[in-house]
Amino acid sequence: xxxxxxxxxxxxxxxxxxxxxxxxxxxxxxxxxxxxxxxxxxxxxxxxxxxxxxxxxxxxxxxxxxxxxxxxxxxxxxxxxxxxxxxxxxxxxxxxxxxxxxxxxxxxxxxxxxxxxxxxxxxxxxxxxxxxxxxxxxxxxxxxxxxxxxxxxxxxxxxxxxxxxxxxxxxxxxxxxxxxxxxxxxxxxxxxxxxxxxxxxxxxxxxxxxxxxxxxxxxxxxxxxxxxxxxxxxxxxxxxxxxxxxxxxxxxxxxxxxxxxxxxxxxxxxxxxxxxxxxxxxxxxxxxxxxxxxxxxxxxxxxxxxxxxxxxxxxxxxxxxxxxxxxxxxxxxxxxxxxxxxxxxxxxxxxxxxxxxxxxxxxxxxxxxxxxxxxxxxxxxxxxxxxxxxxxxxxxxxxxxxxxxxxxxxxxxxxxxxxxxxxxxxxxxxxxxxxxxxxxxxxxxxxxxxxxxxxxxxxxxxxxxxxxxxxxxxxxxxxxxxxxxxxxxxxxxxxxxxxxxxxxxxxxxxxxxxxxxxxxxxxxxxxxxxxxxxxxxxxxxxxxxxxxxxxxxxxxxxxxxxxxxxxxxxxxxxxxxxxxxxxxxxxxxxxxxxxxxxxxxxxxxxxxxxxxxxxxxxxxxxxxxxxxxxxxxxxxxxxxxxxxxxxxxxxxxxxxxxxxxxxxxxxxxxxxxxxxxxxxxxxxxxxxxxxxxxxxxxxxxxxxxxxxxxxxxxxxxxxxxxxxxxxxxxxxxxxxxxxxxxxxxxxxxxxxxxx
Length: 755
Ligand code: CA
Known about the structure:
The protein is of the alpha+beta class.
């Protein structure tokens, strides 16, 4: 007895987070309290497995509304299979399932009040009480299938409505097999003409009766129909508390493949699928264990971590022979091999892909294979894919996504194809999708910048990103032993950022074809020469050559003053390019951080740049401010669009105490760690242990760093060193250490410093 008490006490005091289900810290509702004019994430609760082909979400919005689930809504209309990466891009391949009592088909009539107090949202399981029908709905997913459990009241007309949505759908009821099959074609672009999402739904309970419907009206006597907007209603005679289960699977390839995908559920019952889903999440999120923080910080961290491992999603399926195959959104039909989709590289090249390269290289290995397939099927790498090329954002940042992976030994089997794809895009633009390839490549290659006055919007943003992308291509070219003049061409082009730098303002500025700068110049003007930001936000987009930017500005002192100014100036703005205050502007304005706009991607690396100018303590100060003030595990938890893992991966990296300022280098630039201890288990089995025992809100400054017990002076870590496993000891203090990181030899990489 005594012994066991001692043992229990021992366990109590020595059991850190390791024994905890880390997935329990995730709140999938973070970011869902958003609207068009103000985003606190613009996310929905994605009930899914990591990188799963299908996500599920309760649906509060109308059919077709990008704001599919909004925290402030009162009613749920259905449970939607979704592939939506962002409300701005909207959904494809969606259909919904909704249990009701009585024959209510129309999305307004069938909608039910619900409460967050009668809702359980986890990554692997969702449950809600639908008050108007007295039905509890639960669902638990696999990668390409899901199981539902509906707990009905006593009712002769307990129903499940299946809604295949409009714009061309098909439904067939097969009562003798307790099955409904159908397809939806609803999409918002990026698909070939033969696009369909085939679904198969099998119940465990015989139907009392069933009907199909079209445009919300029952079509009597028919069991099968293809029309604009069709669905089915299945009726069950239930006693109170009776559970009806439905197995749902789908395929972008065929009904046959949808049946194959149903095998993911196997013979497991609801509880087993739920338990296995939880284990999968614990495994993926358990690669990083945190200790010595508050419960709020754990919840914020793991909620961000969850968002970092959803996109890009698997778009491939496993055929009867066990091989990966995919529907080609580019060519139509079925092709061999991997494909991932639903990500915009403009956002995710920054931190999300570098995060995969560090923690889940095997996933990016498959993604790179998929990129090679995309090039073969469409002649271009994607910049914004959902599921095929979409017209959105700027840059040619597939170069960063490919080169950073390649230089870290990922996707090397496809390097020839991928390098060819990168080269191919440097002088052309996709004929239909101007944000794929390089819009303005002719001007850029000839003049070294895209002029302001040639009707190519956001020209400075494009110039800056192409210059960085060219640096990425150069790095890959060097490693591939490409001809010297080819390497030199891209080295030269990577300096093109200098062509849009205006010394009179020390800022980036639009430049006309004749070489003059555009006037009038308002550095607070959003859009125009820039993309969803102003000159103050975009001037730092010289990821590969911050030293070159410092030199342009006239030295470190001015550079630091310019960085400081971003926080000092009030959040003034000029929104005339858009004609209204776009949500990104509003999100900057309300944060009380001057003109710093963490709610959008262009500036997210800026805080780390103090490290390039000998004042790393300022980076440490601001990074901690942003972690503490801009991220919470609440429904309004983000400070702008989350954007497919990018804004979340910023937090996950920053909490480690470092960040990939320039993907394509071997370096992570040091910030300030958040937790007393983090243990990262890499795929190669090595462990990265990060200790910061004194860390607190006050003790945010780094006094000293040791790697494996040896003092370490640089302001960056190298990937090649970290991947071998290491113990990093951060010694923290409430006073900046103004002796650390002040010597040039300790600065992070810049092209201009290369010998
Ligand atoms: Ca954004």
